[in-house]
Amino acid sequence: MELTKYKIKASGIEGYLLVIYNDNHFKSCLNEFKKPLDETQLSYLLKRIPENSAALPQLFAPAGDKITVERIKQIGEEIEPVDPQAASFETKDKIALWCNHYAANHKDGDGNPVKYKTGPAEAGKLKNLVVTPLELESLLVIYFESNEWFLKPKSISNFIKKFNEVRAIAYAKPLPKKFPLPYSEAYFNDLDLMGKRNYHAFLKANGYEYQHSAVHGVKWVLKQQ
Fold it and tell me: Which residue of 2, 151, 152, 187 has the lowest C-beta tally within 10 Å?
């Protein structure tokens, strides 16, 4: 059993709401605000607490600085902060990205792309997945290219279930030591997940910014001075 705790803080209000998860599933919460919240404020927070802890930080992202979510570290634990791009990555864009990759890898007898039908349950699983557009795109390439038996069938449910296994495959590959400038889309597309992350950091350090859309995919553009 693993307990994880989060503090939800509201701007201008002293204290916090303590949310506790047991093995990433909601367990309980404790009102630690110094001044009691009114019914509207408390209802707003309670109705938005998700069942899965992974979805908690991104749910309050649209509130900006008005509401913040902070995980309480255990002794000796290092916590990786949630990437803002992951927090703002909308479910509809995750679904579009998945469907694009599925269609590209599944053809009917006439060679036409097969469309993937997403139900509410699978859409909910993608909603709770905290991931950046760059990482999801990279992992989907690896997932659909893999012939490992445990990564079949190719479905959202199986992808989420085996998410850590897919990441393990991505990180097991050797890292590139040099990166080209100016930005090379062909080179970028040939990299594995870890390589893309390192190229990502390299590009940012050299004045590039990341752009993504469901239509055009990943794109790096040099910032205008």
Answer: 2
Residues 23 and 132 in one domain: no
State yes or no: pLDDT of 80 exceeds 70.
Answer: no
- For CA atoms 113, 220, 197, 70, the dihedral sign is negative
User: What per-residue confidence (pLDDT) applies to 98?
Assistant: 92
DSSP structural state of residue 52: B
Which amino acid is residue 111, in one-letter code? G
* Cis previous bond, 62, omega within 30: no
State the chain's mean pLDDT as an integer.
77
Residue 30 CA from chain centroid, whole number: 27
Same domain as 137, residue 55: no
Measured CA to CA, the distance from residue 29 to residue 66 in angstroms comes to 20
Instruction: Give the C-alpha separation, 25 to 115, whole Å.
Output: 32
My answer on whether 133 and 180 are in the same domain is: yes
